[in-house]
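2024-03-11 09:14:02 INFO worker-7 job=invfold-0412 stage=load source=structure_tokens
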């Protein structure tokens, strides 16, 4: 069947929503038994190596111009190394559903903010409204417990970790935009995955207890399956599909996955892991997703992300 047919495109979009909505659950399973830095570092190192090897086999360029090496290292550390390790340690203390909502809602808003700060775009009233709704959503989510004095400190730390990780990803994504004049998107994705993953693995070997032993992949079958799920459907397949949809649909329409994936994450988290969701939490999540929807709504041309969320979540995605 033709990959450009509407039926196939809708199928790819549905698969992306499902996969990136469940990658947070895979991460939750993996980091329960594997040091987070090593769990993520191995995934992104291999994903980057596969993407660049594919380009090499096709006779396409792999090595970037030397003048971009230091900038590429800095962006890779933001997109992969810092984003992943901070988010994963945060995920240890909050539910997968909440992590998915925070990441999906914050990322488009943060992308706009950093694009404005770096002179790539101007704020509009709609964007300011999106930020205001997002803040109200956060207060709805955490405010009642804070006022009652029952707010779980570790949950706040976990949510803060996912937030900081999403901000690192957003800043790194905006910084990639000028580099796209010289480096092709898939090449840039492969390079940032490989460099950020290698830095993460080396840092894990130095700083994380049990990291060296984790190189054996003797993690138990649930963690190994979760890692393979994150690597193959979560990074390689979904990312390729995302690129195809961006090519055929434009940038904004595929980005609406951010409204669907968190719902999938919440449903699966409650069903499979017994994660709790009260009415206040649900209202806060709806407001945060509404803010993301307002920020992503087509209007004035906006800065596009250099790398799809599936390569850095899930960061992205949850990716």
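2024-03-11 09:14:09 INFO worker-7 stage=emit residues=319
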């Amino acid at each position: 069947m033709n990959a450009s047919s509407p039926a196939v495109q809708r199928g790819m979009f549905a698969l992306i929503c499902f996969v990136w909505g469940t990658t947070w659950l895979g991460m939750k399973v993996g980091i329960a038994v594997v040091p987070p830095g090593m769990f993520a570092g191995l995934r992104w190192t291999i994903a980057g190596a596969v993407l660049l090897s594919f380009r090499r086999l096709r006779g396409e360029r792999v090595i970037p111009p030397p003048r971009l090496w230091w900038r590429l290292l800095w962006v890779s550390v933001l997109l992969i190394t810092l984003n992943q390790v901070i988010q994963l340690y945060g995920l240890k203390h909050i539910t997968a559903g909440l992590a998915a909502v925070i990441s999906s809602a914050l990322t488009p808003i943060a992308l706009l903010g950093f694009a404005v700060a770096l002179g790539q775009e101007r704020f509009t009233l709609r964007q300011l409204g999106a930020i205001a709704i997002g803040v109200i959503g956060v207060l709805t989510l955490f405010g009642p417990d804070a006022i009652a004095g029952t707010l779980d400190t570790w949950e706040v730390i976990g949510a803060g970790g996912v937030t900081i990780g999403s901000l690192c990803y957003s800043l790194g994504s905006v910084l990639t935009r000028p580099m796209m004049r010289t480096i092709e998107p898939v090449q840039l994705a492969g390079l940032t995955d490989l460099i950020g993953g290698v830095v993460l693995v080396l840092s894990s070997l130095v700083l994380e207890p049990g990291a060296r032993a984790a190189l054996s992949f003797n993690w138990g079958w649930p963690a190994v399956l979760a890692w393979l799920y994150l690597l193959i459907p979560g990074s390689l397949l979904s990312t390729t599909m995302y690129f195809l949809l961006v090519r055929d649909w434009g940038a904004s329409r595929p980005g609406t996955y951010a409204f669907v994936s968190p719902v999938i994450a919440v449903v699966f988290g409650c069903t499979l892991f017994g994660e709790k969701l009260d009415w206040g939490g649900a209202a806060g999540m709806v407001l945060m997703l509404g803010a993301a929807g307002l920020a992503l709504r087509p209007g004035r041309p906006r800065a596009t992300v250099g790398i799809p969320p599936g390569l850095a979540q899930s960061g992205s995605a949850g990716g």
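2024-03-11 09:14:09 INFO worker-7 stage=report msg="The two ends are 27 Å apart (CA to CA)."
2024-03-11 09:14:10 INFO worker-7 job finished
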